[in-house]
Amino acid sequence: MNNIDVDKARAFIYNLLSLLFVEEYAKTKEEEIKEALTILSQNSFSQIVEKSSINILNYLNSNNKNILYEEYQSLFLVPFGEFVPLGISWYHEEREGGIMQLRVKDILAKTKIRRDESSFKAQEDHFGFVFTLSSYLIENQINQNIKENLQKELFDEVLGLYMDKLAYKLMATKSEIYSNVGLILESFFDFEKGYLGIK
Which value, to the nearest 10 degrees, does the dihedral of the CA atoms of residues 57, 155, 189, 180 take? Predict the structure, then answer.
């Protein structure tokens, strides 16, 4: 049985991940990201998440205003060096726009929303979009606008298959921001599996 307070916290974390992994948000919403990290550091579900949130905040506050977007570009947009792919299909079959994109579209088809192409230039199986969709689905399930547990379906069939792989790739980078995001992601992945009852 789902707990509304836990679900609200989960939606909050997915929203923070959305802010960190959608290019437009990483470029324009640094203050909102800082506020969310502050809240997470003060209300975290593990010491790793608390410490990682504080590490990111300290780094953002001690560097230039564009440092978040610079690290985003360096990791996710420049196709050499420490490049980390954000397409879930890439992790599934080493190509963009594959089966995972179709699975996300199938889940999207059960809702009234569609991808906003002004905010999301990437495809539906982009981690940033899937984190955004997860937050939306949880919020709508809390408000009883969606009866099915579509977020669990999305996690079970798409996100949960490769979220840990993304976390490990991020933890291995030299990025002061995203290596810590990887630690948050790994802890949250473990929590989600247990909470949703997914093996």
Answer: -30
List, as one string, the DSSP characters of 26-60.
HHH-HHHHHHHHHHHHHS-SSHHHHHHHHHHHHHH
* Residues 153-196: tens digit of each pLDDT: 999 999 999 999 999 999 999 999 999 999 999 999 999 999 99
Closest alpha carbon to 9 in 197, 195, 198: 195
Q: Tell me which residue has tokens 């707990």.
A: 3
Alpha carbon distance 182, 174 (integer Å): 12
> Which positions ≥6 away from 3 have C-beta within 8 Å?
none
Taking each helix axis from N to C terminus, what angle separates 127-142 and 99-108, rounded to the nearest 10 degrees?
20
